Amino acid sequence: MVTTNQETTFVPHYSSLVSELQKIVFDHDLIERYDEKGPRYTTYPSTDCFKEQFTALDYEHILCQQAPGTLIKPLSLYFHLPFCNSICYYCACNKVITKDHKQADVYLDYLIREINLQANQLPHRAKVSQLHLGGGTPTFFSDIQLKQLMEAIRTRFDLLPGGDFSIEIDPRSASTATISLLRELGFKHMSVSILDLDPAVQLAVNRIQSAEETCRVIECARVCGFDSINIDLIYGLPKQTTTSLQATIDLVLQLRPDRLALYDYDHQPERFMPQRQIHQDDLPTTSVKLELLGNSIKQLTDAGYVFIGMSHFALPDDELTIAQRRGRLHQDVQGYSTHSDCDLMAFGVSAISRVGPTYCQNTKLLDDYYAIVDSGQLPVDCGIRLNRDDLLRRSIIQSLLCQFELSFQPLEIGYFIDFKSYFSDELVALAKMAADGLLLIEDDRIFVLPPGRLLVRTIAMTFDRYWRTQNSTDTNYARLT
Fold first, then answer.
1. Are residues 334 and 453 both part of a single domain?
2. Does the structure show a pLDDT above 90 at 399?
3. Residue 4 included in any domain
4. Is the pLDDT of residue 76 over 80?
5. What pTM, to 2 d.p., does this model score?
6. 3-class state of residue 265 by DSSP
7. Which among 28, 33, 247, 300 is placed 20 to 30 Å from 436, CA to CA?
8. Domain assignment of residue 372, yes or no
9. Contacts of 154 (CB under 8 A, 6+ apart)
10. CA 212 to chain centre
């Protein structure tokens, strides 16, 4: 168990590479006092602020106006592939459960049509430096279908050599031939969900996944030359114990992934029907959940992993860790990234685009998506155009989440403000956190201290104008416990 106020340490081999910025302290009392449910900040403002008044015509206009995808500012592309063979009870993602793989053929046809619809709005052929396939289960699609999708993308976009192309993998549906093909298609980064390898936990969430098939996929990816592998874990699952999660992480550490995500399970059965299959009595208590978190953090950091922020860890020589040390880390719809200069065009049901000062989200229902594409329109359901204050606050939240610090002068110059006057109320609210040792407020900057880094979301929420003034209905929220 992690001792209260005990600073985690790194193995000596890595100590010289880890800056003061990336240290972390697990303080049980501070977490209990300050932890609250809040946005994950994949977008700012969060998606519940998106409006139906933002239409496909607005998105078409911004694509023409911003002209994304130049050599100076290449594009990022995201494709949402929603199908899964079976339901995982914990999941709150937008997915379609089916064993009928013919549905993938239909969806692929519409996805290619949407690619053409969006590409037709661009005033030039766009350059792409980042691409991600997410879901759902991207490997629900056959090798032939994945190849067709990449061919369709390359037909309308220029994928730059050495681009950052990644995909989410379910080891239960990915053969060694599929892994080899993905590398041939240009994918360099792979994300693998493990959650917990204990059979009782897997049975409770209806995701039976052996250690052997998981190891097989990861070992194959390394042989095929993938640059990095990410593993997703979840704490707070039903039947989960400190022993089961520790054993899972012990195995994960043997695999030595380049990155790890340690997500919290948020039980909301009133909103997500599959979660009703999970018995409340099987869930760990808040106290046990904190113990799970603290122990896991110590395991990971003792093994040399750096806490990037917001549930994410990486090896000291990973490009995300390096980007954070250099002040170039970015966080958006796809998670942490080194591509802060990229506009994001997204495709498929519920996919969220970020172009210029706007966000827009596609319709969430499959039938609606098909009907709108059939009409020749972009399947935009809602969105938002950010005003000057939104852009300023987004920049602040980004800096805190990615760098654990905030310098006032660049914002004062860029937005013609006096920071202390503009954010006088926020600074008053932060003063209490500073008194409790979460952060340091200096004359020209805010620095998040090691005890505050697990609570950086709570700190960032101080600058969220929407969060404090409305009752949110967004599903993309989280807390530590």
1. no
2. yes
3. no
4. yes
5. 0.91
6. coil
7. 300
8. no
9. none
10. 26
What value does the mean pLDDT take over residues 450-477?
Answer: 83
Specify the higher pLDDT residue, 473 or 469. 469
CATH number at residue 474: 1.10.10.920
Burial, 205: exposed, middle or buried (Cβ in 10 Å; 0-12, 13-18, 19+)?
Answer: buried
Tokens 């490997």 correspond to 139
Domain identity same for 342 and 395? no
Provide the number of structural domains found in the chain.
2
DSSP 194-220: EE---HHHHHHHT----HHHHHHHHHH
Q: In whole numbers, what is the pLDDT of the chain averaged over residues? A: 90
Residue 69, classified by CB atoms within 10 Å of its CB into exposed (0-12), middle (13-18) or buried (19+), is: buried
**DSSP secondary structure string, 49-87?**
G-BTTS-HHHHHHHHHHH----SSS-EEEEEEE-EESS-
Token pair for 479: 């807390």
At 166-203, the pLDDT tens digits run 999 999 989 999 999 999 999 999 999 998 999 999 99
**CATH number of the domain bearing residue 300:** 3.80.30.20
Host domain of residue 233: 47-347
In a domain, 3, yes or no: no
